[in-house]
Amino acid sequence: MSLSGATAGELLLRLERGDLTAVEITAGYLDAIAARDGRVQAFLSVNRDEALRQATEIDSRRQRGAPVGKLAGLPVAVKDVICAKGQKTTCASKMLQNFVPPYDAHVITRLRDEDAVLIGRTNMDEFAMGSSTENSAFQVTKNPWNLSHAPGGSSGGSAAAVAAGMSPFSLGSDTGGSIRQPAGFCGVVGIKPTYGRVSRYGLVAFASSLDQIGPFANDVHGAALLLEAIAGRDPRDSTSVDMPVPKYAATVDEPLAGLKIGVAKEHFVAGLNVEVEAAVMAALDVYRKLGAEVKEVSLPHSKYSVAVYYIVCASEASSNLARYDGVHYGHRAESFKDMIDMFCRTRGEGFGAEVKRRIMLGTYALSAGYYDAYYLKALKVRRLIRQDYDEAFKSVDVIVSPSSPTPAFKIGELVDDPLSMYLQDIYTISANLAGLPGIVLPAGFSSSGLPIGLQLQGPAFAEERLLRAARMYERETDWHRRHPELPRG
Q1: What is the pairing mode between strands 169-174 and 212-217?
Q2: Which of 79, 155, 167, 302 does the annotation list as catalytic?
């Protein structure tokens, strides 16, 4: 059965009507994975038997008239950095190649509670460090729109799975743009929630003050459904905020009257692709026709965001990844002279080049004599970046920008140029540093047929506003209804 292009809302409606069963939907997506993923390579593992068992049990309850969750029967693909009990969680690293968690992440518990079907684990940049999904220790994920191009990263597998019609939605994580940049590259919707909106319990840590879990979907309503399912307070995460979760899916179709949109002049400077700029300007014209006011704002400290981010994230990565030493779990070198030699060989063998680069950068920034000059200074500038946003949001409701400076680049094009690769996240990093939410949705295509993403950022815990603003634009366009031509499942 082909389900390509079906949205989560459409599938739920057909389930409720009895037109489809959970088993039929799950089998349809499993068939799509079998037909397409050999080319795309979005999945590291597929839970075929378990997914069909879940779907069968959900159908049985529905037939008996027993209660079912709000996602009952819908498949969800999960980035391989989120722990699921009994399922191998590798972080796309040799270090954790055989690690099987003994517990579920909070978001996995929430998905199970809502009867989502966990269909498989998606590829990523190792330990979520990268912008192209080329840093995986196991395979390189391709962009479904053009298999010679990258899907973005680090959640490239999750974005590609949705774009290729292999799952109606998926989970990723976003530390500096790792949901939003691949959403833009793959032509799907991706949300980075406010820091603290979604529990990080069970998310393998990269940079703890920046990481957030969020959804991908093929329309804004689907993203709202999935965010509503996973958001909320979790006492096991001390940074999880105790705030009510709005009914995102119920309000997403309500337009925002008097919407004020900010455009930061710092986002439209040298280095921005002309086709990307044109797509963003065209999107602003759509909003104007809908009655929105568009005005210029300034984020003067955003020019420091890349430098600040790569000090903060590398420093936290150095600390978080110190636990992978071959003692308790994960890879251990087979031969070594003594304990120190075991540490060195284990980490040398287990980590890839990009992870090693960031560990070394972070260790240097935190070392005696350099802490004040680098890490402490970066934290001070981080505060200024947040203050810029706070000032801008006094006069506007959302800030619109590109999701990345270019459409998807070719695989291998930037792999040996770390600085150019890092600059791919120049429009997304600031929201992580400020702890603010952002959403990316499709806004057009380049002349070569690659998707272009539009980013909306909002104040803390303004996800409902962002979803409604994004849906206003989505209703007026058909970009989200276009799908790459791949073998049909």
Answers
A1: antiparallel
A2: 79
Give the pLDDT confidence score for residue 1 in this predicted structure. 52
Question: Please, where are the H alpha helices in 260-338?
Answer: 274-289, 305-320
The DSSP code for 377 is H
Residue 154: active-site member = yes
Say how far apart CA 442 and CA 78 lie, in whole Å.
Answer: 21
User: Nearest 5°: phi and psi at 192?
Assistant: -100, 110
**What residues pair up with 118 in beta bridges, in sequence order?**
76
CB 156 within 8 A of CB 424: no
Cα dihedral 259, 263, 264, 270, rounded to 10, equals 160
Kind of pairing between the strands at 260-264 and 398-402? parallel
Pick the catalytic residue from 93, 131, 132, 154: 154
Check if 178 is active-site.
Answer: yes
Give CA torsion, residues 421, 427, 429, 433, to 10 deg.
160
The tokens for 176 are 């500096």
Catalytic-role residue among 173, 178, 199, 404: 178
Token digits of residue 369: 């004599």
Domains belonging to the chain, first-starting first, are 8-260+467-481 (3.90.1300.10)
pLDDT at 486: 78
Q: What is the pTM of this model?
A: 0.97
**Burial degree of 398 (CB within 10 A; 0-12, 13-18, 19+):** buried
Chunked mean pLDDT (size 10), the chain, 489 residues: 84 96 97 97 98 98 96 98 97 97 98 98 98 98 98 98 97 98 98 98 98 98 98 97 97 97 94 97 98 98 96 98 92 94 96 97 94 96 98 98 98 92 94 98 98 98 98 98 77
